[in-house]
C-alpha cells in the first residue's frame, strides 16, 4: 500500500470559551467538541514497512498517511484508548483543550475535574487533569494534575507532584486500562496539601530570592558544550532564575505573595516563559514539578525538628 502524503487537518483547539447556558454547552458547540474528539482519536495501526530504516510505521488507517517511523519493540497506544475513558468519566463538557501537533505524532489534552481549592486571600486554584501521548518513542504517555490559578492574569498553572503523576515509555506490555483506573481513583485523594502548606509558610523577599538564585529546573550535563543556536539546560536554567528574580522584586500583590506559594508561582511563570511551544509541554510539566520539590526540600532542611514534624503533618 502506498503512503498517502496529504497532511491531515491540524487539531489545536482551546475549548475554554465554549458557549454555555447554566453551565451546559450549547448544541452547536457540543457538536464541535465531538468532532474535535473524533479527529484526535482517528484510528491508527502499526505495520511493517521494510523500506524504512526502523522497519515499521504508525499509519492513519483512514487516510493511509504515515504518522511516524518506529521500531519492532514500539508499543502503540492509540489516542482513543487513553482519551475516551476520561471523556466518559468527566463528560465532554469538561474538556478545556485538545492539541495534536508534529503531523499527528503528539497529543495534549486537559480536562477540568470540577474541583476547586481555596488558597487564601482570594486565591483559588481549579484542578485540571492533563494527558499526553505520542505515536513514536520520543515522548512517554502521561497523566498529571494541574493547579490552575483563577486570580492570575497570565494563565499560569502548577503541576502537582503529590497528585496523579504517571508516565510510561511506549515499550513492552503496558497495562493502560489499569493505569487509567488508578488515575481516576487517585485524583479524588488529591487536595493540593503541599500547595496549601506553601501558602501558610511566610517568606521574606530576601528568602525568596535566595532560593530562586540556587534553583535548577533541569539537570545540567557539564560534559556537553554549547551548541550554536540551541539553548542548553544551563542556558534555560539561567533564564528561569533571571525571570524569577525579575518577577519577585515587583510590588507585592495577590500574584506576588511573600510566602512559599508566591515563590513557586513566580518560578512557574518563569518556566512557562523560558520553555514554550507545543513540543515542550512535558518539559514545562517536569520543570514545575522540580520547582515544587525543590522548594519543599529547602523549606524542610531549614526547619527545626518540631517545625518539620508540624509542616509534614499538614502536607499528609
Provide a concise account of the structure shown.
The protein is α+β, with helices and mostly antiparallel strands. The protein has 9 helices and 11 strands. The protein is globular and about 60 Å long.
Structure description:
It is a single chain. With 316 residues, this protein is an alpha+beta fold. The protein is 37% helix and 24% strand. The protein is built from nine helices and eleven strands. Strands 1-7-8-9-10-11 form a six-stranded antiparallel β-sheet. Strands 4-5-6 form a three-stranded antiparallel β-sheet, with no helix packed on it. Helix 4 crosses helix 7 (260-274) and helix 7 packs antiparallel against helix 8 (281-301). The longest helix has 21 residues, at 281-301.
Topology (elements, then pairings):
Elements: E1 12-14, E2 20-21, E3 24-25, H1 27-40, E4 44-48, E5 56-60, E6 66-70, H2 79-90, E7 95-101, E8 106-120, E9 123-134, E10 141-149, E11 157-168, H3 176-186, H4 193-199, H5 205-213, H6 233-248, H7 260-274, H8 281-301, H9 305-315
